[in-house]
Automatic annotation (TrEMBL):
The keyword Cell cycle does not apply. Keywords: Membrane, Transmembrane, Transmembrane helix. The chain crosses the membrane at residues 17-38, 44-67, 88-117, 123-151, 163-182, 218-242, 262-284, 290-310, 315-332, 363-384, 390-418, 439-461, 473-497. The lineage of its organism: Bacteria, Bacillati, Actinomycetota, Actinomycetes, Micrococcales. It comes from the Bacteria. This is ABC-2 type transport system permease protein.
Length: 511
């Protein structure tokens, strides 16, 4: 099984070798980094080992869901042997120790034992911690791989993998920006130490915290050891349950041949909302009219910095402007989404699709685009501003502008649609209009979005210039108002869609 990927062809073998090379390089760097901490303080060693161990545990759990590789030790392959679930689960878990990633963890574990031994921690305590951590990684990988095989097998696609990757980026990038922006100065920043302390009491980092806490407080180390053991027992029970289900459950028939080519339609739920969401995602990712609008947003947001810098506004203030502008434009973008359907809107009306399904389905692609973009850019901007206390302010302001704009756009796209370039036309070829309804609709949505976000903007300005205590008001007020306007706007837009179906079809035919 270890050499099978090298015999699958030239390209798979090259990809496997490249992956092994990257893993080997990362392992060597990790070992060198751990050994270099032998002369550092115990606090630094604690933070690094807990954060690194937690990341390893999370990676082993998330990798099967993201990659979707076929498990050569899938319990379903052993049905014909009539093996009991208990012994089979134990044997497969032990076989999971024979892998290249586990070999990398073993090398890191040896270095971790040497690190804690240099800080006076008993070798037995260090070995107990790394053994529990390694076993947790193995069982987490087995459980998540079994879950992926049972529930994602028929839905596995590039689209679903892409969603997992985007979700991972949403978590990894902000964390990386936060860590890179910290000023160490030979000591562990208080915020980072607090994060490590919290992770030490969670299933992800408890095992890796045992050696560090053993040196300072045996009682605290005992609580970490109890959490680690409980986690391992819970994963073992979950693994046994999944093996038992795989051996004694009859699977549903597979989907018809060719269903894997359905793309987003195979990922989305089989409901009117899911079908509309899948079709809308395809439009947003392939129609150049949508792509041009998306590409213009960051450019327009960055251009807003130029006049502010020219008039002498400090750069630390100016860097906070582009991200709220992006949130405003992202929320405004679908304000005429229905018109881009052209005559295809007849499918919704002829099928009797409810307005709420149409409204929610059309919001899915912009949410899939907007949330990751904002989640990645907000921490970067706050790091450039060099004041992390402004993070809640920026989150609240952007949530109010983005979500409020989406709620208003849900109403505007059915209440006041206006002609746009037809499918296949150039995005810059604007149709002739006999009236200024399009300009009015665009301006009204932008103005209304700013009015809705005015409280969050005002509290954010006060937090920036007067008292940082207003940051909580900006966060909760912005998020609350944004969610409320989104829900109300979606409901109103759905009601308008239900009442104006025939009129919308007539407008689409005449455009």
């Amino acid at each position: 099984m270890l050499v099978a990927p090298l015999r699958a062809g030239v390209r798979p073998a090259v990809r496997t070798l490249l992956g092994l090379a990257v893993l080997a390089a990362a392992t060597v760097l990790g070992c060198m980094g751990l050994l270099s901490l032998r002369d550092s303080s115990a606090e630094v060693a604690l933070v690094v080992s807990v954060l690194g161990g937690s990341a390893l545990t999370l990676g082993f759990a998330a990798a099967p869901l993201i990659v979707g590789a076929v498990d050569p030790l899938d319990p379903r392959r052993f049905r014909l042997f009539d093996a009991p679930a208990g012994p089979l689960a134990a044997i497969l878990a032990l076989a999971g120790l024979i892998s290249v990633p586990i070999a990398a963890i073993a090398a890191l574990s040896v270095c971790l034992v040497l690190l804690w031994a240099a800080h006076g921690v008993p070798v037995a305590a260090a070995i107990v911690g790394v053994v529990l951590g390694t076993a947790t990684c193995v069982l987490a990988a087995r459980v998540c791989m079994a879950l992926a095989a049972l529930f994602l097998r028929e839905r596995r696609s590039r689209e679903l993998t892409g969603l997992f990757v985007v979700a991972l980026l949403v978590v990894v990038v902000p964390v990386g920006v936060f860590l890179a922006s910290l000023q160490w100065g030979g000591r562990v920043p208080g915020r980072l130490a607090a994060v490590a302390d919290i992770l030490g009491d969670t299933p992800m980092g408890a095992a890796w915290t045992v050696p560090a806490r053993w040196a300072t407080d045996a009682a605290v180390a005992g609580s970490s050891l109890a959490i680690a053991v409980a986690t391992l027992v819970g994963l073992a029970l979950a693994w046994w349950s999944l093996v038992h289900r795989a051996l004694h459950t009859t699977e549903r028939p597979s989907l018809a041949r060719g269903s894997g080519r359905l793309g987003w339609f195979a990922v989305a739920p089989g409901t009117p909302t899911g079908a509309i969401a899948a079709r809308s995602v395809l439009y947003w990712l392939r129609d150049r009219r949508y792509l041009v609008n998306i590409l213009i947003i960051p450019i327009a947001a960055l251009l807003t910095m130029v006049p502010l810098l020219i008039v002498g506004v400090p750069l630390s203030y100016v860097v906070l402007v582009p991200v709220p502008m992006m949130a405003l434009f992202l929320g405004w973008l679908p304000h005429n989404d229905l018109a881009y359907d052209s005559t295809a809107v007849w499918m919704h009306i002829a099928a009797g699709v409810r307005g709420v399904s149409d409204r929610i389905g059309r919001l899915v692609p912009i949410l899939l685009i907007g949330i990751p973009v904002l989640a990645i850019t907000i921490p970067i901007v706050v790091a450039l501003h060099d004041r992390w206390a402004m993070l809640p302010v920026l989150v609240g302001v952007c949530a109010s502008l983005f979500l409020g704009g989406l709620g208003l756009s849900s109403v505007a796209s059915v209440a006041a649609p206006y002609p746009v370039p037809r499918p296949g036309d150039s995005p810059f070829q604007q149709p002739e209009r006999s009236e200024a309804s399009g300009v009015v609709a665009q301006a009204l949505v932008l103005l209304a979005a700013l009015i809705v976000a005015a409280p969050a903007l005002w509290w954010g300005w006060l937090a920036l210039t007067v008292d940082i205590g207003y940051a909580d008001y900006a966060f909760w007020g912005g998020v609350g108002v944004g969610v409320a306007v989104l829900l109300i706007g979606t409901g109103v837009g759905a009601a308008v869609f239900d009442r104006r179906g025939a009129v919308l079809l007539e407008l689409a035919e005449a455009a």
